[in-house]
Design goal:
InterPro entries: Cro/C1-type_HTH, Lambda_DNA-bd_dom_sf, TransReg_Diox_bact_type. The protein has 118 residues and is mainly α. It has helices at residues 4-15, 20-27, 31-39, 46-56, 60-67, 70-115. The protein folds into two domains: 4-67, lambda repressor-like DNA-binding domains (434 Repressor (Amino-terminal Domain), Orthogonal Bundle); 69-118.
């Protein structure tokens, strides 16, 4: 498992001259929990990650991105590509539908004009 997140948390904690016990108390988690996160043996929940980020003075989004492993990022990229493809297909269908509705309107108008008394 890649441990960019844990290493980053450790570096930020040390840069703020915080002990593991101090960060744990500030983040409302146990000392062993912080140690497990920093060593890469535990992935914190989003809520805990937000609390840690706040106490370290960094945006939680930055730590969230570091917390994603490559599989998560690849999965997100695939979902984004799938959604983009779906949106593009829906837009193409919408254009076809608008075109068909326009043709139907023109046919009705033409038919109505033939029926109109002269």
């Amino acid at each position: 498992m890649d441990n960019k997140l844990g290493k980053t948390i450790r570096i930020l904690r040390q840069a703020k001259s915080l002990k593991v016990s101090e960060l744990a108390k500030l983040s409302e988690v146990s000392v062993p929990y912080i140690s497990l996160v920093e060593s890469g043996d535990r992935q914190p929940s989003i809520e805990v990650l937000k609390r840690i980020a706040a106490k370290l003075g960094v945006p939680s989004d930055a730590l969230l991105i570091l917390g994603m492993n490559d599989d998560t990022l690849k999965s997100a990229d695939k979902r984004t590509a799938d959604l983009t493809d779906t949106v593009n297909r829906l837009m193409a269908m919408e254009r076809k539908l608008e075109s068909l509705m326009g043709m139907e309107y023109r046919l009705e108008t033409k038919r109505d004009s033939r029926r109109a008394p002269r």
